[in-house]
């Protein structure tokens, strides 16, 4: 599975949100989509998921456009996790995860053994097996996010697009979820996650796409995208850098004034 | 762990079967109960033997159409209520909310008012269906212009009050007090003295409406997670909207056009059953249809057993039970919110 986006432009409320974004995604890599608030990350992710058409430009899924592929075929190949995804009815966690199997089910056919097995795997991978009988509304924010992630994994799509999957989690579950997404990528699924935590992004992702003002400012391995110049231009921050063993890490440390000087 | 919750204790198939048996039992009870002393066995014997005796006529022309219409109307209201709640993701939605019911009532009142109902036997139900179709079309046009669910609810309220005020206008201009009284009584909703012709007229559109609505079950499940996620799961929400609005117009439009306004069944049915299906919107559809049928049949039996004469109108009884239920529901919803 690959997605080729070429010259993507999008507007919202008369404001240009994305201008001339070109990128390609494929299975087997953990890609972080980063950038300051309002940079157009969610808009881009929705366009890549085939949920919204771009104002200009093309998105090709395995070389075909969304209409030719058909929405059900696309739904089996791309799983999408919405930002703080709503759950409107008091479903049990297991029933919610089972919704991820909808693209695989026929018009009338019931739940198959394959559906059950996929849901079991997804619940196990997100460490939510013990929550299966719980009603989603009674879960903590972190538990809820993991159940929603289990729903996404249950689809067993080739590509997983997740909008801020770790925003609501405590540090332990952030680390576990990032490791889980990385492992999913290692086992062949393509993962694209919108992330705000640059430390986690630098540590876990294979590739980072840095959006700034609706354009791709940098696209490549973390050490090439999270340079001091890029951090200053995109976020207006300076980072503290260090090493843990042989691995580098980065920690956002100082907000810069518009002239690039440390702000008070 | 103490006792399992209800939705885990009762398998879904058993729930459907149990409700179907209850509905059929209430249907039979509705056939058996009436104002004249009546030998049900003999009547059935005469009817099946093709003997046109009085009991056989009462059974075929009065009792069976009344029970069958009660079942059909109740199922339509319960099913559509569950579908509207799932679609708008709002537990307070019901067929009346989106304006289909009141537009159907207006259509029937216009027929009443024009005097067509006296000359053409089936003009009344046809007028009701036309009203429902007009409301459905208007809703679809609003939704196709990108209106969100809140806008649709407000649009439904607008259609409701427009239809309500036009109905009041018709009453105001009614040529004589008897015409006005007839309209008012009809609006209250009743299953009394309905004919087999009306039954055959509304059956096809109702079945079509049910099929359209039930075909949206999977998409309604997906909508639990919001519109973006439902779309990402491969569902065409524009097609779902057309199916649900058309389904509501066909099922509820024809229901209202033969019975008048029978309120609250579409609201109460889904609520009673939601905890028993683990709140899954797709599974809720058939069972709340059956619950609606049971509620309507039970209420229609009650109006005949109550000693008031002339009998209470069915819509009055469902509203008397349903309105306090709605207040209790809002009370509980308010408490659940932080």
Automatic annotation (TrEMBL), chain A:
Keywords of the record: ATP-binding, Nucleotide-binding, Translocase, Transport
Record carries keyword ATP-binding: yes
GO MF term list: ATP binding; ATP hydrolysis activity
InterPro entries: AAA+_ATPase (IPR003593), ABC_transporter-like_ATP-bd (IPR003439), ABC_transporter-like_CS (IPR017871), P-loop_NTPase (IPR027417)
Protein name listed in UniProt: ABC transporter ATP-binding protein
SUPFAM superfamilies the UniProt entry points to: P-loop containing nucleoside triphosphate hydrolases
Summary of the function given for this chain in its UniProt record: Part of the ABC transporter complex HmuTUV involved in hemin import. Responsible for energy coupling to the transport system.
Keyword Nucleotide-binding set for record: yes
Family: Belongs to the ABC transporter superfamily.
Residues covered by the ABC transporter domain: 3-238
TrEMBL record, chain B:
InterPro entries: ABC_BtuC-like, ABC_transptr_permease_BtuC
Coiled-coil segments: none
Topology within the bilayer: Multi-pass membrane protein
Principal localisation: membrane
Gene Ontology CC terms, in alphabetical order: plasma membrane
Signal peptide (residue range): none
Keywords: Cell membrane, Membrane, Transmembrane, Transmembrane helix, Transport
GO biological process: one example: siderophore-iron import into cell
Protein's cellular compartments: Cell membrane
GO MF annotations, alphabetized: transmembrane transporter activity
Family: Belongs to the binding-protein-dependent transport system permease family. FecCD subfamily.
Database matches in PANTHER family: ABC TRANSPORTER PERMEASE PROTEIN MJ0876-RELATED, FERRIC ENTEROBACTIN TRANSPORT SYSTEM PERMEASE PROTEIN
Protein name as annotated: Iron ABC transporter permease
Classification of source organism: Bacteria, Pseudomonadati, Pseudomonadota, Alphaproteobacteria, Rhodospirillales
């Amino acid at each position: 599975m690959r997605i080729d986006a070429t010259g993507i432009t999008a507007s919202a409320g008369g404001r240009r949100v994305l201008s001339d974004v070109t990128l390609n995604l494929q299975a087997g890599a953990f890609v972080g989509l980063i950038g300051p608030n309002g940079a157009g990350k969610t808009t881009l992710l929705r366009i890549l998921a085939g949920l919204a058409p771009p104002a200009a430009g093309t998105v090709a899924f395995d070389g075909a456009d969304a209409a030719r592929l058909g929405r059900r075929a696309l739904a089996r190949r791309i799983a999408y996790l919405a930002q703080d995804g709503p759950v409107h009815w008091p479903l049990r966690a297991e029933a919610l995860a089972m919704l991820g199997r909808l693209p695989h089910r026929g018009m009338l056919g019931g739940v198959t053994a394959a559906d059950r097995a996929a849901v079991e795997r997804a619940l196990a991978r997100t460490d939510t097996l013990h929550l299966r009988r719980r009603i989603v509304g009674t879960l903590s924010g972190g538990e809820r996010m993991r159940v929603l992630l289990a729903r996404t994994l249950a689809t067993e799509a080739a590509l997983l697009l997740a909008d801020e999957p770790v925003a609501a989690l405590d540090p332990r579950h952030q680390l576990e979820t990032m490791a889980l997404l990385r492992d999913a990528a290692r086992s062949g699924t393509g993962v694209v996650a919108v992330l705000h935590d640059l430390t986690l992004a630098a540590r876990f992702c294979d590739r980072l796409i840095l959006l700034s003002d609706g354009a791709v400012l940098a696209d490549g391995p973390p050490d090439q995208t999270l340079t001091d110049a890029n951090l200053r231009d995109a976020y207006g921050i300076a980072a503290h850098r260090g090493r843990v063993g042989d691995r580098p890490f980065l920690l956002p440390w100082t907000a810069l004034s518009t002239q690039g000087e440390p702000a008070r | 762990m103490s006792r399992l919750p209800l939705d885990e204790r009762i398998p879904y198939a058993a729930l459907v079967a149990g409700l179907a048996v209850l509905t059929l039992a209430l249907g039979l009870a509705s056939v058996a109960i009436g104002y004249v002393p009546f030998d049900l066995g003999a009547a059935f014997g005469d009817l099946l033997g093709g003997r046109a005796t009085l009991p056989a006529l009462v059974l075929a022309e009065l009792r069976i159409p009344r029970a069958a219409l009660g079942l059909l109307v109740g199922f339509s209201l319960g099913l559509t209520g569950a579908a509207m709640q799932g679609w708008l993701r709002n537990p307070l939605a019901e067929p009346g909310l989106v304006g289909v019911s009141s537009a159907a009532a207006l259509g029937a009142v216009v027929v009443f008012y024009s005097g067509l109902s006296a000359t053409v036997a089936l003009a009344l139900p046809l007028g009701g269906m036309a009203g429902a179709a007009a409301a459905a079309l208007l809703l679809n046009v609003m939704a196709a212009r990108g209106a969100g669910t809140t806008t649709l609810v407000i649009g439904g309220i607008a259609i409701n009050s427009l239809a309500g005020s036009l109905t009041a206008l018709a009453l105001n201009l009614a040529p004589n007090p008897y015409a006005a009284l007839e309209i008012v009584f009809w609006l209250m909703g009743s299953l009394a003295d309905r004919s087999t012709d009306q039954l055959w007229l509304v059956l096809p559109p109702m079945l079509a409406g049910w099929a359209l609505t039930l075909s949206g079950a999977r998409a309604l499940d997906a909508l639990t997670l919001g519109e973006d996620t439902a779309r990402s799961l491969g569902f065409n929400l524009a097609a779902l909207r057309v199916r649900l609005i058309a389904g509501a117009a066909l099922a509820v439009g024809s229901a209202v056009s033969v019975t008048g306004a029978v309120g609250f069944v579409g609201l109460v049915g889904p609520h009673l059953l939601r905890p028993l299906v683990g709140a899954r919107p797709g599974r809720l559809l058939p069972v709340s249809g059956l619950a609606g049928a049971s509620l309507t049949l039970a209420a229609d039996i009650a109006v005949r057993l109550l000693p008031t004469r002339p009998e209470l109108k069915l819509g009055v009884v469902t509203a008397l039970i349903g309105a306090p239920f709605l207040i209790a529901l809002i009370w509980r919803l308010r408490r659940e919110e932080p």
